[in-house]
Amino acid sequence: MKENSTSVKALLPVLFGFFIMGFCDVVGISTSYVKSDFGLSETIAGFLPSMVFLWFLLLAVPAAMFMNWFGRKKTVLASMLVTLVGMIIPFVHYDLYTCLLAFALLGIGNTILQVSLNPLLTNVVKGNVLASSLTAGQVLKAVSSFCGPFIAAFAATMLGNWQYLFPVFALLTLLSMCWLLFVPIPEETSGQLTSSWGATFCLLKDRTILLLFLGIVFVVGVDVGVNTVAPKLLLERCGFDIAEAGIGSSVYFAFRTIGAFVGTFLLARVSGSKYFRVNVLVAIAALVVLFFVSGQYPILVSIALIGFTCSSIFSLLFSMAIQAQPRKANEISGLMVTGIFGGAVIPPLMGYCTDLIGTQVGSLVVILGCLLYLLYCSVGIKTER
């Protein structure tokens, strides 16, 4: 009984770290505010999310190598410190350059956090509980993402400035740091031999790992893409202002939360590959509907369906990869988190296609391409297994 109590005590601060992880998704609604504040084009605004997600490509593997030596818990704490600094900067002084710096620090902190938090969870839970726990963590991440647009809208309308969301996020990050710092968590021995870039990326020679890695790239592309385009569709087709249009992102993350919660239980009972494939098919159908509808409610329903069906895919791909080579969990984590750079590639491509076509249909075409790969990926994983 005492051992179980200790396990729960260690699990809670680790899971709360997933809430902090969700802060990176505030870049979706923040892009709309920053674009309006500084009069940016769609193409230039599309690079704002890149300031967050580019670091997953550049730092994920070095962070995994660093974690092997420094330890998982200490690496998580370091990531939160970087995030805390990033949340303070734009509140102290707000201009385009401090926004870019804040987004960059948010991306750096989030990269290190995602690399280290998932393996740290394996120090607390084992075996079949891991996939369910990872999905539960994604529920908390989705709750955080859901709250972001509401906090921004409340700050803009009630406090007179959307930037007040930054000190709120900073305070929550500080709380998470203190909680994790003072709760003992079983830790792997530090000072392990660190893997090289080459050794880590050699894992891609395994076809299953390659499929899962590219799946991460494209599911994050869908996630960031829908988060970014949802308010823009409401602005373009329904005449909403920016504060009202934030409901699009909130609906998306609300149903991601619900979908992740449902997935926590269903993934313990149904085939992962089948669950993956069915959800992607429904997401494709919902996205196709978005090409043709213009009313507020059809748009929100379609966005909700995409959020619900894509909610568990990231954690499913991640857990499959770790279970494929559990002895290389740190390296697998670094490699998979590198795939989150899809969030840096997809939004600029969406912005370019939108400027090229003249409507948000250009963005939807790019997201559809991501979903079609995920459909292929779901079939490939089934074949591999």
Query: pLDDT average, as an integer?
Result: 83
Strand content: under 5%
Distance between the termini: 37 Å
Name of the CATH superfamily = MFS general substrate transporter like domains
Write the layout of secondary structure elements.
Blueprint: H1 2-21, H2 27-38, H3 42-45, H4 48-70, H5 72-92, H6 96-122, H7 129-158, H8 165-181, H9 197-201, H10 207-238, H11 242-266, H12 272-290, H13 296-310, H14 313-324, H15 329-338, H16 342-357, H17 361-384
If you had to describe this structure to a student in words, what would you say it looks like?
With 385 residues, the protein is mainly α. The chain starts with a helix and ends with a helix. α2 crosses α10, α5 runs antiparallel to α6 and α10 runs parallel beside α15. It is 81% helix and 0% strand. The radius of gyration is 20 Å and the shape is globular.
Descriptors:
single chain; 385 residues; mainly alpha; Growth Hormone, Chain: A; transmembrane transporter activity; transmembrane helix
